[in-house]
Amino acid sequence: MKEVREVLKKYDLKPFRYQKMGKVMVVETEKGSYVVKEKRIDNTPIYQYLNARTFGYYPKIITSNDENYEITEYIEEISMPDEQKILDLVDLVTLLHNKTTHYREVDEDDYKKIYEDIENNILYLGSYYDDIITTIESKVYMSPSEYLLVRNISKVYSSLYFCKKEIEVWYTMVKEKRKQRMVVLHNNLNLSHFIRNHNSYLINWDKSKIDIPIFDLYKLYRNHFLEFDFSEILKRYENSYPLSEDERKLFFILISLPDKIEFKKNEFDMCHEISEKIDYLYKTDRFISPYYPKNGK
């Protein structure tokens, strides 16, 4: 706290109230309210690049680059339904991607690495679930969570089969390409990192990087797949920032990969976790199936 007070004093900010909100602190001063958080990484290069691309949709930063803490303006959020909020978030992400799009030269090895990473993950998960099911079926009595997994294991295997088939198609599509579309990724998209006031703002850029655009969609889907109809979200995104066929295919592969289920929790929690992960696979199947011919998955 002493170090925080020293940083505030350096910028002539006299606090009269502190409020802890998650990993940040909201400080009320005579000049207004500010958010203070410990700086884990220096985001200056990303902020500079965003400014150069006229994307200023993040809270104004008060502190200089060499501080251990980052102080930003506090933005009061307008209350709105989550269904509207996520659409506004998608609109801002498409603006981010449009303003920062560029192309880099690649060779087959760049795509081959993605292909091999996913292929190896598919093989690992297939082997992992084979071993798990063999162990469970060797028991005289299954636990409720084990029975739940065995009863639904066909969905896990069908998702792995789909990913295996599609990654081969994807690699055939891209291995001759020599340019790859890149954008600035926020890389941690969820509703808690979006604020709507008179403008829209993205906060918490600690994981931001430059990479292919689908990774922002992937993070958003994984964080909110249970809450929203992502078919409408993807359509809204593509209305402003259409994905190429190979980008969309890779996105569908990534979200279709099953999670690894480990039996490390109590029985109640394991049943809840397995149920959620199986629901995820079914919901993902429903989401992407309109993009494939009948019986294509």
Can you describe what's shown?
The chain has 297 residues and is α+β, with helices and mostly antiparallel strands. It has 2 domains: 2-43 and 59-74, no CATH class; 99-291, Alpha-Beta Complex (Aminoglycoside 3'-phosphotransferase, Chain: A, domain 2), CATH 3.90.1200. Helix content is 52%, strand content 15%. It is built from 9 helices and 9 strands. Strands 1-2-3-4 form a 4-stranded antiparallel sheet, covered by helices on one side. A 3-stranded antiparallel sheet has the order 5-6-9. A hairpin with a 2-residue loop joins strand 1 (15-21) and strand 2 (24-29). Helix 4 (108-137) packs antiparallel against helix 5 (144-174) and helix 5 runs antiparallel to helix 8. It is globular and about 70 Å long. The model has no long low-confidence stretch (mean pLDDT 93).
